[in-house]
Amino acid sequence: MKKTDDNRRIQKVEREIQAVVGMYLISGFSEPVDVFITLSRTVISADLKFAKLYFTVLPKGGTGADHVDEDEAEKTEKLLNEHAYEFQGHIAKELKLRYTPKVTFFHDRSIEKVIKVDQILSQLAGQNKSDDE
Question: Among residues 34, 32, 37, which one has the least CA distance to residue 63?
């Protein structure tokens, strides 16, 4: 029974950290960024001392692009990790935890994979329609 309670606590802390960091990105992050950053998921260690925050990036403005190139995503990942101490400080201030987890950011590439699969499926569906006609 204790294992289930621990899992619920970890999941709750993951959600809280994701919400706190997301709000900080919107309203308090000190560095200007040229992309929209969305936190896609948070994974925290069982001892609550380490947190991996996965993010996706989308272009700002009317560029017409539906994704950001890999270089821009890598620059964003580097920027976020350089300022991880800011995020940790904000987490410590907002959440009452025994330990403030060490935060590490990772670019979440799963969205890009989903988009590629969707494009391939759309192409196949278009080919099947043209073959049927």
Answer: 34
Segment 107-117 shows an average pLDDT of 79
**What is the C-alpha separation between 83 and 76, in angstroms, rounded?**
11
- The answer to whether 4 and 28 have CB atoms below 8 angstroms apart is no
Query: Does pLDDT of 1 surpass 50?
Result: no
Question: Which of 65, 44, 43, 40 has the alpha carbon at shortest distance from 55?
Answer: 40
Task: Quickly tell me which residue has 């994704």 as its tokens.
Answer: 67
Listed by start position, the domains of the chain span: 2-132
How do 50-59 and 102-107 pair as beta strands? parallel
20-54 per-position pLDDT tens digit: 999 999 888 888 888 888 899 999 999 999 999 99
Q: Which CATH class is domain 2-132?
A: alpha beta
Instruction: State how beta strands 50-59 and 35-44 pair.
Output: antiparallel
- What does DSSP assign to residue 34? S
Structure tokens at 57: 């990036």
Which amino acid belongs to residue 43?
V
Distances (CA, A) of 110 to 8, 11, 74, 101: 25, 21, 15, 24
